[in-house]
From TrEMBL, chain A:
Sorted UniProt keywords: Membrane, Transmembrane, Transmembrane helix, Transport
Membrane topology (UniProt): Multi-pass membrane protein
GO cellular component assignments: plasma membrane
CDD domains the record matches: SLC5sbd
Disordered: annotated span: 515-552
NCBIfam families: monocarbox_MctP
Family: Belongs to the sodium:solute symporter (SSF) (TC 2.A.21) family.
Pfam families named among the record's database cross-references: SSF
Family matches, as InterPro entries: Na/Glc_symporter_sf (IPR038377), Na/solute_symporter (IPR001734), Sodium:Solute_Symporter (IPR050277)
Species annotation: Dactylosporangium siamense
Protein name in UniProt: Solute:Na+ symporter, SSS family protein
Keyword Transport found: yes
UniProtKB/TrEMBL annotation, chain B:
UniProt KW keywords: Membrane, Transmembrane, Transmembrane helix
Species per Swiss-Prot/TrEMBL record: Dactylosporangium siamense
Highest taxon of the lineage: Bacteria
Protein name from the UniProt record: DUF3311 domain-containing protein
Pfam families with a match to the protein in the record: DUF3311
TM regions (residue ranges): 20-37, 49-67
Length: 552, 73
């Protein structure tokens, strides 16, 4: 009951309210002349330096849900859940040269969303619309999942009620506050709050990493306890090491997730908000600090096994593994510290939720509203539409969590990873080559999307007793291979997408079907801060760097 | 819209042989046979765990090196 958790709740509420105040104050932070412009409201003035970008992107990519769900995966399945570490190692060298190109071309043309770029690069409003819709659909359940993250904490503190509205009242209040300061401060709010959130999380985890083994007999004993649990379980795929069947899944899931991450519109929002190429490149070396953090947090799942934590139940009687980390803190730490940890998770949900809603709103504004509803929209109108849309997006996420089974959000997020990957040929490869025919990219998108959906539909989940959309590990035997191995759906789907796009390009070229032109030029991809040709609301007077570099 | 095309100076392109190093931290974490074992343990961590956490340092080292060597001066 909640009465046993009064101190935890008090600390949670105090920190939460403090952070909310920061969110409102953020509107005055690095105050622009005019906040009523998408570059200001939606991208924080495109002027964030190294530290702010580090906190902002870190707080954006490593969400509260990740911090709750990854250890839950290790708790339930073991080593397979640790894919989050190779995934977040691969990602930075992988996008090292990609993101700077995206930043440069967006800087020069004033792009706010990935769909803006696609529209100009391929001169195809249809393709841009597909990219925008894919981005919005993939982002929405991600926002809802942040609420699931907060809920796991509230549930552990006993803050639950009967009835859909009563049970969710705390979340509704929290989201109303979040919506209000995102509306008034835009991207500046999550950027400022990320400082508080990440500092809290780093402190909590550093303490946990040393304190938990002290309480549980050392890390060796923690791993042994996990090993013993998986030995006893009847499932063949769990264990503290990978087995012959899930290694391919592990590799393809890590690689596929890495390919997908920066295709999410909210990740790009953080990137485009930085002030120059150097900030991005330096962050590719600095952001892995969060990967280490995530790896250590993942291991809390094993600590929960060693501490004999029993997850709380879902209303339908299945285990809610997302509660194991909050329960672990409740069980082994003093109440005040558990309160701080809970606040870290709760606030941790706000930062990505705010950025995601801004990103989804920007997609709607730029690629639906301005493209189809009001061609001559002024920057002020764009900003207003984005602000209102960000509110609607949050209401939509709330409705999802309150009235629909949270499992549905989790399924949708799984689908989200697969579908956002289908924008890879147009968005990521499009940064390097204009070789693909715009019609072929649409064809590839349709093929990859169709195949991905079909594969996800085929996958059952034994734990939640569902026949379809039960996971992302696809058994190769369904393709007719004589094998017990599984592979990540998104990986197969994007491979087919690429193949179809390439083949169709050859066919369309051979049959001389008209392709669009290209509004970008080669030098656009290397422009940096102070570029004289940048399309910006605030012309930069600084002279461009002209010193030639002898290294080609 | 963009103006007339200016010739790209060599420094404008991101090309550099140092960039090939980026493949190391991309490929290394994907070779599970390297680390999918329990022994040797380090501070109680099975090899599977400490080695993957150590690969994070490889990633940081590589991106830092490539950034420093390709930086515009």
């Amino acid at each position: 009951m909640w009465r046993d958790h009064q101190l935890e709740i008090a600390i949670f509420v105090i920190l939460f309210l403090g952070v909310s105040a920061v969110g409102f104050v953020a509107a005055r932070w690095r105050r622009p002349d005019n906040l009523n412009h998408l570059d200001e409201w939606g991208l924080g003035g495109r002027n964030f330096g190294g530290w702010i970008t580090w906190f902002l992107i870190g707080g954006d990519l490593y969400t509260a849900y990740t911090f709750v769900a990854v250890p839950a995966l290790l708790f339930a399945a073991g080593a397979a859940g640790f894919f989050a570490v190779p995934y977040t190692v691969i990602i930075y060298p992988l996008v090292f040269l990609v993101l700077v190109r995206m930043w440069s071309v967006s800087h020069r043309h004033g792009f706010v969303t990935p769909a803006d770029f696609v529209r100009a690069r391929f001169q195809s409003p249809t393709l841009a619309l597909l990219i925008a819709i894919t981005g919005i659909v993939a982002t929405m359940p991600y926002i809802a999942l942040q609420l699931v993250g907060i809920e796991s904490v509230l549930k552990t503190m006993g803050v639950t009620g009967s009835g859909a509205i009563a049970r969710h009242l705390p979340i509704i209040i929290a989201f109303a506050i979040l919506a209000a300061y995102t509306y008034s401060s835009g991207l500046r709010a999550p950027a400022l709050i990320a400082f508080v959130k990440d500092t809290l999380i780093y402190i909590v985890i550093l303490v946990a990493v040393f304190y938990l083994p002290y309480k549980l007999g050392g890390w060796g004993a923690i791993f042994d306890a996990a090993d013993a649990k998986f030995d006893k379980s009847p499932a063949a795929t769990d264990g503290i090491l990978l087995n012959a069947n899930n290694q391919l899944q592990y590799i393809t899931l890590a690689l596929g997730s890495a390919l997908a991450l920066f295709l999410y519109p909210h990740s790009l929002t953080g990137v485009l908000a930085s002030k120059n190429r150097d900030v991005i490149k330096r962050n590719m070396s600095a952001l892995p600090a969060y990967s280490l953090l995530l790896g250590l947090i993942a291991l809390l799942g094993y600590a929960a096994i060693a501490a004999n934590v029993t997850p709380l139940k879902n209303p339908n009687g299945t285990n809610d593994n997302n509660t194991v980390v909050p329960l672990l803190f409740d069980k082994l730490f003093p109440d005040w510290f558990a309160g701080v940890a809970y606040a870290a998770i709760g606030i941790g949900a706000l930062v990505p939720a705010a950025i995601m809603s801004i990103a989804a709103a920007n997609l709607f504004t730029r690629n639906v509203y301005r493209e189809y509803l009001r061609r001559d929209a002024t920057p002020a109108q764009e900003a207003t539409v984005s602000k209102v849309t960000s509110l609607l997006v949050k209401v939509g996420a709330l409705v999802f969590v309150v009235f629909v089974d949270p499992q549905f959000s989790i399924d949708l997020q799984l689908i989200g990873g697969v579908i956002i990957l289908q924008t890879l040929p147009a968005v990521a490869l499009g940064l390097f080559t204009r070789w693909f025919h715009r019609g072929a990219l649409i064809g590839g998108w349709v093929a990859g999307m169709g195949l991905g959906m079909w594969m996800l539909y085929q996958i059952p989940n034994a734990a939640t007793k569902r026949a379809h959309f039960g996971g992302s590990a696809f058994p190769l035997k369904e393709f007719g291979f004589d094998s017990t191995k599984t592979i990540y759906v998104g990986f197969v789907a994007v491979a087919v997408n690429l193949l179809v796009a390439a083949l169709l390009t050859l066919i369309l070229r051979a049959t001389s079907v008209a392709d669009g032109g290209d509004d970008t030029s080669r030098s656009d991809y290397f422009a940096d801060e102070g570029d004289p040709r940048a399309d910006t609301a605030h012309p930069v007077s600084k002279a461009p760097e002209v010193a030639p570099d002898p290294i080609a | 819209m963009t103006g007339p095309e200016r010739p790209d100076t060599p420094r404008a392109a991101d090309k550099s042989p140092w960039n090939w190093l980026l493949f190391i931290p991309i490929v290394l974490p994907l070779v599970t046979v390297w680390y999918n074992a329990d022994s040797p343990r380090l501070l109680g961590f099975p090899r599977f765990y400490w080695m993957q956490l150590a690969i994070i340092a490889v990633g940081v080292g590589t991106t830092t090196l490539v950034y420093q060597m390709t930086k515009r001066r």
